[in-house]
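User: Sequence in, structure out. Go.
Assistant: Echoing your sequence, followed by the structure tokens.
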Amino acid sequence: MSTTTSTVPKAEPAERAVAAIQVVLPVGVGLLAPNLDPNAAAFVGAGFLAGATFAGANYMNRLGSWASQLPGIDIARAHRDTMGISTITTGMALAVGQLGGAQTSEALMAGLLEPATVPGILSLGWWSAVAFTGWRLRRVFGREKVEVEDAPAQPGPANAGPVSPVSLADKMIAAWGRVISDPKTGRHRNQVLSDVVIYADRWEGRITAALGDSVNVSKEAVSSLFGRHVDDIEMKYGSHSGEATVTVWYTRRAELDPNTLQGAWKRVRARVLPKTHLEEVSEGENTGGQVARVVADDDLDALPRVVNVGSLAGALRRSIDLVSYEPGRRDPRRAIIRVMDHNPLEAGHDFQGLDSLVATPGGWVSIGKIVSGFPARIQLFDPKLGALHVVIAGTTGSGKGGTGQMISLAYHANRMAQIYADPKGASNPAIPKMAAYSGLTNAGALGAMRLSWWALQHRIEEAARLDLKNFQPSPMRPYCATLLDEAAQMLAPGAPNRKEAVKIVKDGASLTRSLGMPWVLINQTVNLDQLGGEQAIRANLLAGGTWIILRTDSDQVNLGDLPPGFEGLDPSLIPPVWADDNDALVYDPAMEECDPRRTFGLGYVAAPGGRAGMMRIDTLEDATPHIRAENIAAPLDVPWWGDQAVMEELARTPLPGFEEEGDEGATDEAGTSFPGVGLPKAKEMTSEEKVLAALRDESDPMYVEMLDEGDDISPEDVDYVERSDLLAASGVPEATFANVLNKLEKKGRLHRTKNGKITKVALGSKPEEAASGESA
């Protein structure tokens, strides 16, 4: 076998030119700097600063991905160390020449002739750095001998041509060798391609440079050789700069296709969720779209708490009903994003019968479906916390009445009593058939609310008299919910008897949870003024229940204050009808017309401690066929319940303190007597008693029971309540609330702790203080 020996340069002309500039530039600048006029000196100084900035960023490998498109960037990265040294020596020569003049510049250039002087030492160091740069670049200027083995002749038939590579991978490696890595004529000599693996959508290979060199093959060279777009080529360095992996895609990658979730995420990163990326992207089986995990980048600790779903849908080029964003419940750095071709909730889900609403031991029932396919669940009651409130909001036609009917049917399925107040008169005919008492029209609704308040007074007095800790339902003493439809007609400014109605709802929201009497408020908006204007009402509804928000009007949402869990959502963006596939610009009489289908029951639900998720209520036109006579319950523990004469008298008579509308002596607080009715007198509580009662109601019943029974309390057993929540629940004015806490803390009835800026309160004294008192 014969070989051919030839001498070739070790580097390409471009790289040799760059190396020469690094060596010559410091000397040239040192000679020219003293002779520059002020304008030229300013121009040269600005150019040097720009170049020094680039060289510094290149040296620290901080240029970023954008620099990969710059011509010759592979050479700059391979010479980052020598470019750094050359930049320093050039800067010294420029500064000395411009600031010190010709004499100082001459001392820098020729000072090495007098090495015993200070200028001589500086000059010697400067020239050493210049010489070191040239020494480091010696390989670029050198040449090398290359021996190429002549290919042996292969036996074969006469007149046969050269033997072709046996596989596609071999052909690709051979083409790479001729064009790119050939030691004589290659674009990037001695940078060999190997380990080529071909897949259905791409091929991958490994590039290895000669020992001591760095891989600097450009995407453009690969693009030209294989006829693929530059965006279809990926280059990743291996464990060292002499090795890299190249990937060439046959098909357009998803992240480059704006019609895919990955491609659209570039817009999302730029406008809505910066510093995020997608993982686990997969096809949505039920929606025809895609689902993925949104993950925060390494330099982002947590995803934003508030994400504007409208802006997110716009960036993804979808309508809001075709986008679902669910933040992680445990991991703040992860969320789930769904982009749908069609919403699975559009088809609806038929109600599965009364037995499907039987609550779990924890009080949870399923009333519909979430877009992810999971059931939409709400909690009617909690074994420890007691009954839980529900708020339903939505404009006309959004499914508000159907949702209220489903909640009422859930109470009915679990044998809970209901008091129904409907100012409109007949919003939902099925609910009165399940209720123990119904009050229709404004006067009737106020009467039903009054009966609910008097039933509450009985249970408060009974609990105090019998020392009842936790509410235990029974057939005679069931949970008793009060449903107020079109709540704004009773609670909004200008409503008749508004102060009395607000008093009833405020007491109901604040005091009923531990007495088994939840409230359901059904209204068009969630604005505070439409719910009575009382922060105590809102605070207790937020802390103790579920919020269901359907489509609302945009002006109402802008005025409203959505509850926690609904941040970034805009229910006004829910379309009133599902999208029509017919987007023709010109009317075609031959095309069959389709009636619009309303998005009835489409909205968001957030249970306590959860994040709002898009859901749709089960489809049920009329609940009447599902009503069971044996399930209709009443609060028979109330002694006057069932006495129609007494009940009608209570329903017609204003609460004490509200007997005469506009009476200057009337107050917002109920009096202590009710003439003509033999009911227990409501004793007015002091501010201290109100705070203690509210704290007991907000605390864990097990913790309260341990205190009452004198059990040993460890620090881990203490159940704290935030000060702001206690203030809202007690109804004590802010001006006196702090003094009340101080007095009760001195008496040992409660104690406080502080976590950052949040103050929390708990019943009893601190466990360690109690222990020290006993030892004393």
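User: And one key feature?
Assistant: Residues 148-161, 662-682, 770-776 have pLDDT under 50 and may be disordered.
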